[in-house]
Every structure is written in C-alpha cells, then in structure tokens.
Amino acid sequence: MAAASPSAQSGPLDCPATHAGEGGLLQLVSFVVGEEEFAVPILAVQEINRVLPITRVPQSPEFVEGVINLRGKIIPVVDLRRRFGLPAAEPSPDSRIVVVEVSGRVIGFTVDRVNEVLRIDPSVVEPPPAMATGSRTDYVSGVGKLNDRLLILIELGRLFGVGTIEQIDRAAA
Amino acid sequence: MPEGADPALMQDFLTEAWELVERLDADLVTLESEPASAALLDQIFRALHTIKGAASFLSLGALTGFAHAAEDALNRLRKGEIRVTPPVIDAMLRSVDVLRGQLTAIGGGYEPSPGPEDLIAQLRAIAGGTGAAPATHASAVPAGARGPTAVDAPKDASVPFCGARLRPLNLAAEKADILPFMIEDLRESVAQMDAALARGDRLGVDLQAAAAAVRPIGDYFQLGALRRLGELIEISSAVIAAAPPDARAECVLRLRAVALLLSAAGDCLAAGHEPEWELDTFASRLEGSLMGSTNPQSLPALRAGDPLLILAADGMIAGDPGASARVDSAPAAGVRAEADAPGDRAEAERRGDKGGERGGAAGPAESTVRVEVERLETLLNLVGELVLNKNQIMGLSRQLRSLGLPHELQQSLSGALSDLDRLTAELQVGVMRTRMQPLNKLFGKYTRVVRDLARKTGKEVELVIEGGETEVDKSVLELLADPLVHMIRNSVDHGLEKPEAREHAGKSRVGTVRLSAQHQGGHVRVAIRDDGRGIDKARVGAKAVERGLITGEQLAAMSDREVCRLIFAPGLSTAEQVSDLSGRGVGMDVVLTNINTLGGQVTVESSPGGGTMIEILIPLTVAIMPAMMVGIGKHDYAVPVSCIREIVRPERRQLRTLGGQPVFRLRDSVLPLIDMRDRLGEARSSENDGFAVVVGVGQQAAGLLVDRLIGQQEVVIKPLDDAYTSGGPFSGATIAEDGEVSLILDVIRLLRSCSPAEAAAA
C-alpha cells in the first residue's frame, strides 16, 4: 500500500488502534478509481492483493471481470471502473484487487491504486449531495471533506447488492 | 435455551436426540407390522428414555414431561398390556412429531412448548391403569434430577438389570398392590442420589436421605439386596465428608454404581423379579475407598468414569463363563446372551490393567467418533489444495528435468514425487471416505412417510428398501433428501391406486413402492419403482400444452420418454385433487433441480397399468470428478467425463441447420450442435472446425463444438455460487495446475437450451 500525502486527519499506518469506532473515528481504506478517491470501512476489507489472473465468466453481469482463485476459494471480481461506468483501463503496477466481505459474500474488486488507511472524524462526512442523480448515488453513503480532498464513502452492501444486478445490466445494455 | 445450560452439552444432546427421534419414526412404523417384536419395543422405549433422561439432565422441563408421558404409554405396550393398533401408533408417531418440534425449538434457543393437551390426554389414556401414577408423574419429575441414571440407560440396557441374579418375586397381595409406588419412590431416590453425586456438595446429607428412603423399602419387601445397598449408602453418608480427597473420585463412582444397582433393582421389581447381587467384593472395596485406599482393579473404571466397569471389575456383571449358570429364572437366556459381552470387556480390562498403563487406558471400546462436519470440510478443502499443490510440483519437476539434472538427483526426485503422488491420492480417498454415509440414513425416514401417506390416502402400501447400505458423500446425501421424498410421495399419491381399484385391475390390494440403491462405476443408481397405474402420457401432454409449457407441435414431436419427463416441469400436476400431500405441482421440479446440481441424471419409465420407475444416477461424490479439459477460444473449460458419450471430428458435410438450429449427423441420428465459441462469447481463434464433444444426460444428447482437446484430469470442484457468477452454463469451477481457474460446463443446462421438453422443464 502506497502512503499518500498525509493530511491532518489521516493516521499513520502503524497506529496501534486498529478497530473502528476508536474515539468515534471512522477507519477507512481509501483507493482511487479513475479521477476520484473512494473509501470503504476497514473492517469490511479482508485483504488487498496484486492483480491475479482473472478468469472470465461468460454470462455474468457486464461489470464482473471474472473469478480468481483466492487460496482455493473461487471469488468473483468486479471491475469497479466498469461498475462506475468509466472507460476500461489496462492494469498498471499500482492496480490492486481489494477483497471485501459483504453480508457473507466474499467479493473482490479492482481499483487503480490503493491510497492509505485513514481515520476521519464522522463530523467531516456529509450526506451524498442531493443534486446528484443516476445510479451512482445509491451506493454513496457520504462524502468526506479532508482539506483539499474529497473522499467518496461507499456502502458496499448497495454497491454489490444482488437485487440490483438486473437493473445494472439493463443500464449497461 | 434454558439459562445455565452448557452449550456444548446442549449441542451433544440435540445431535443425539435428533438421531434417536429419526430412528423412532422408522421403528414405530416397523412395529406396526411386527407388533410382537419385543426387541423393537425395547429399542423404541430405550430411545425415548434416553431422550427423556438427557432432557431432564439439562433441565428441559417441557421435553422431559412430555417424553415421560409418551414413555408411560409406551411402557404399557412393552408390558403387553395393550396391543399395537394403528391409533396407538398414530399417537406415538404424533408424539415423535411433538418431540421433533420441541427439539427444533430448543435448537433455535426457544423454550419448547409442553405438547398438545389432547395428545397428552390420549397418551395418559393409553398409559392409564399401570398403577405407576403416570398422570401426576408426567410433570412431576424434578428438573435435573434423573440425569445420570438416564444417561447411563443405554449401557444399562446392554447389561439387563446390571447382571443381577433374578428370582421370581413372591409377594402377598397387599404388598404387591403398593409395589409400583415403592418402585416409583425407589426411582425418585436414585434420581436424587444421582443428582447429589453429580453436584457433589452436601453429599452427606443427600446420601442420608437416600438411605432413609431405600432401607425401608428393602425391609418392607424383605429384599436383601436393597437392605444391603441402603446400608452401604448410610455408611457412605456418614464418612464421605471425611474421605481423603484422592479417594473421593472412587467413592463417588462407586456410589454411582450403587445408584445404578438401585435403578436396576427397580427395573427388576417392575418386571416381577427379585434381584440379587454378590455384593461382598463391591462393599469391601467401597469401604476401602471411603478409608482412602484405591483398589488397583478399579483404575480402568475410574479412568473411564463408568460405574458399569466398577461392577464388572468387582465381578457383579458376569465376568466368567460360569456366571450364566447362576441365573435361575425365566428371562435367563436373554440375560446370559447379553451379559457375556460386557463380561469379556471386563475381562479384557483386567488383563489390560495388568499390562500396565497402555492397556488400561484403552477404556471401553468406542469404535466411532463424532466429528463436526466443518472439520471434515476443512480437511477436504486442504486435501483439494494439496492435490493442486502436488500438480504444481509435478509441473515444476518436469521443467527442472528439462533443464538437465544429475542422473542420481533426477532418480531420487522421481522417486519422491511418485511417493507424493501416491500418498496424496490415498489421502484424498481416505478423506473422501470419512464423508461417506449410508443411504439408509435417508431411506430409514421414508417408512414413516409412506405409512402416513398410505393412512391419509386410504391406500395400502408396502415400502421395500434395497441397498440402503450403499454409501455416498454427505453432500450428495443431503441433496438427495428432498428429491427422494417428492418421488416417494408421488409414487404413493399419484402412482398407486386405491385397494379396490387395484383389485379391480387384477392386482393385489397392497401396492408396492420399491426403493433401491446400488453402486455403478463412480456413480450411485437410486431407483423408485411402483406397481401403480403408470403415467398417463396423454393427460400429462395435454396438461403441459394447457399450461403453456410446450406447444401442440412440440408435443407431437416428443417421444414417450420425453413426455414422461414432463412430470418434472414446474406447475404440472395431474392429480385430480390438490391435497396437502402432493398435487400442487411443486415438488417434482425440485427433483430435477437437485439432481442437476449433483451432476446426476434422471430417467423415467412407465407403462400403463404396470407402474412407473424413476431412476437417478448420481456421482458418489461432488467434490472431485474426472473431467475432459477442452479449449474454447482463448480459454480452457472442463466437461464432466460422466456426461461425455464420444468425441468426434465433424466433417463439414455432417453439419446442417434444422429449423434455424445447427445440427449434425452422427451415424443414424441427428443431434443439436452447440457452437461453444458463440455460446460463451469466445473469440474464434481458428477457422478449423474443432471437435464435437457429444454429451448426453438421460435421453438428451447434443454436440458441443470446441476448438481443442487438452486431456482428461481429476478436477476438484469448487462452487461458483456467488449471485454474480451463477448465471452462466457452469456447474462450478476448478483450479488448474498453474493456479488459474477453469470453469466446468453444466451439461444439463446446455442440453436444456436446445430441447423443447427440457426447456419447458427448466
């Protein structure tokens, strides 16, 4: 994990407090997809891997890149660029697969780069802008404002919701 | 779950109770057809008693109370005071259902309900007149009191009456009248004593009370054994508090043995015998242990914590061949036959003890171990990983060799690798075998299902089970459970005629449903055959058209077998009336779904008036299977070998289209052809025609056009069950030597997509 520009609120990686809610702070893992920076709760993240060979699974939703062998377990990998409707990009040395657990499912997703583990005060998180429309807003749980950065907080349950596959497929078609 | 109950104990209890409850079902149904079987009655009684005892140990009051009511009713059957009749069996079976409900509640962490009052009243009516005051007793069992006795009950039962010599009990009429109450008192004391021993504090006071209860009974009925045991308890009560700590364990165990003897005495008296034991050795050793000297003969029993072994070591349970000669009353034969085995065990124990630590520690021979399924799953996964890892190492060694190694090194590398290969294979087989379970585990339940169905539908049905000992993987067993129930229901409800109709058709009144299983290569064949009216193909076809499952033209083009298969289509039922049994058109489609999940095949054969046979062919295990690896476009896929009929290289002139669907000629038949490159959206890497892998399931066959053949491999099947990846024609995935994932083609899904009947049944 590459440490990014330290900001006032971001804690060092070797901070002994690793559980969420410590002092009321949110513990997040931030990463970059396209031009934007996103964050998910650290407790949801199982591991972060370099990009492994991904096997395409025909007739799966368009944004599913395929499956990987995660130490003997087959898990799906979602291409977040495609999920966000961004143009495809070749994997770079910075690309990572973030493996998360969402309501019992283990799912990986590809990101362009993982930034850092950070702790932020919930007070700097605002609800998603009401003006924003489209499929993107439903999985944004809030927007964190850190100095010069905008951190888009993701609700994983909604991002990888099963009920939404068909809608997303239709939207993508 | 009641507060304070040890969750692990509770789990053990539930596991055991569920097993017993399942057995009760089957046993009760069998009892109906063999009403005279005392062994069966005993087995049923024992099962119920074990549940009751363990429940009471865990302070599950509602369960204990209800089980007790059922036990009282059953006891009358056992004594031959009432006859086995369908209403009685109905009540007993309903009781089993109530127990099941209670167990479910307990498992879910709820307080179980006490059981329906009408049923309890019915049970009491059956039990009525035993003199053992069952009505008041049903709920009067002190919670947690009867535990250890009852927990020991099965062992107890394997040594009838704890090896007592039996004499006919001769009592004056007025004494005989109150005997049942005295027995009840005695049992109460035993329970209290057991509870006290389990608790361990205030032992002196509790034992004093027990002695005070036991001795008068012995005096009143002139029973030497009871008097003597009462005395022993009294002595113990006086000195146990002062017993040296290291001898205390033996004292407690010996007192548990006393409780066991008292409980056996109760059983003897209830059965009309007077028990007698050779108590001298036991008594002197008990007194010795109270004084602080542990007898070496008692060590094995102490280690095992089993009071029965104490009795065996002290020669109370027949340990020598001459023992049987001492038995001088009616049930002697049974006592002798069953008493010999534990005697041998005791003998072995004694020998083992002399042999030193190792032999002594062997304890009572337990030949099975209960293991959590999760551990086996982990083990299986690890073996799967190991197989992959081994494959990788094999690949690496080939590379190493091509680089050129010194001859000697190469030799030893080959040797080590072939050992690794063999050991992995053996380990794999071994682990797979731990997961195998006999089909009887399922089949056993169906006697009950069939009986209930027969009673409800007014039919007479005999269920014949063959090959129940055939073993399959646990997961296969689980996935088979629902389909089999549905098929059996279907056979009884739809297949078999009413007795009158059968007679009219010149058949015997009793219909037969035959459930059979046998191994066939790497598969298990399960067949359900009934001798009923057979499938009315015209009606099934008409119904399918009416429901819009297929068109009239499609029906016209279908073979008889294909029409028969329509019974698996969802929403299709030809039963005139919808009952709560079947006929609602759900169910049979479950059969197809589950069997498909297992990679199995279903065939249906039926003749009008002659009955129907549904045959399922399923792999023994779902974890590892042989597969043909094929290349399609840029990727590799696996095709289960079990589905492959042949592989051909089609020439261009064999390829045609028929009604827009590509087909190819194979000798005399025309088969649908699925171009897998199109189907999977793979790039056409070459213009060559590739290979047609002819796959078939049941009567369905098709050719799968692939680019390359790679070769056959044993593949470890991994589920591909995430909602994102379960939509394609894949039954799972497997991991190749290089760690990459290959998908396993779901042949059944592929076949369905090119056949009208199958598409309808999809």
List keywords for this structure.
heterodimer, A: mainly beta, OB fold (Dihydrolipoamide Acetyltransferase, E2P), 6-stranded mixed sheet, 3 helices, globular, B: 762 residues, alpha+beta, Four Helix Bundle (Hemerythrin (Met), subunit A), Helix Hairpins, 5 domains, 5-stranded mixed sheet, 30 helices, 20 strands, 16% strand
Low-confidence stretches of chain A: 1-21, 164-173
| Strands of chain B, count | 20
According to CATH, the homologous superfamily of chain A is CheA-289, Domain 4
- Strand tally of chain A, please? 11
Any low-confidence stretches of chain B, pLDDT <50, length ≥5?
130-158, 319-364, 574-586, 757-762
How much beta of chain A, percentage-wise? Answer: 35-45%
Q: Summarize the main sheet of chain B.
A: 6 strands, mixed
Order of helices and strands of chain A: EEEEEHEEEEEEHH
What is the third-level CATH name, the topology of chain A?
OB fold (Dihydrolipoamide Acetyltransferase, E2P)
Main pleated sheet of chain A: 6 strands, mixed
How would you describe this structure to a colleague?
The complex is a heterodimer of chains A (173) and B (762). A six-stranded mixed beta sheet of chain A has the order 8-1-2-11-10-9. Chain A has a five-stranded mixed beta sheet with strand order 3-6-7-5-4. Chain A is mainly beta and 173 residues long. Chain A has helices spanning 80-83, 156-159, 165-172; strands spanning 26-33, 36-41, 45-50, 64-70, 73-79, 96-102, 105-111, 113-120, 125-126, 140-146, 149-154. Mean pLDDT of chain A is 79; it is low at 1-21 and 164-173. In chain B, the strands form five sheets. Chain B has a six-stranded mixed beta sheet. Chain B has a five-stranded mixed beta sheet with strand order 4-6-7-9-8. In chain B, strands 18-10-11-20-19 form a five-stranded mixed beta sheet. The longest helix of chain B has 31 residues, at 373-403. Chain B has 762 residues and is an alpha+beta fold. Chain B has five domains: 1-144, HPT domain (Four Helix Bundle (Hemerythrin (Met), subunit A)); 149-362, no CATH class; 373-434, Helix Hairpins, CATH 1.10.287; 441-619, Heat Shock Protein 90 (2-Layer Sandwich), CATH 3.30.565; 624-761, Beta Barrel (OB fold (Dihydrolipoamide Acetyltransferase, E2P)), CATH 2.40.50. The A-B interface holds A 53, 55-61, 64, 66-69, 71-76, 78, 105, 107, 160, 162, 165 and B 381, 384-385, 388, 635, 679-682, 718-720, 722-725, 727-730, 733, 735, 739-743.
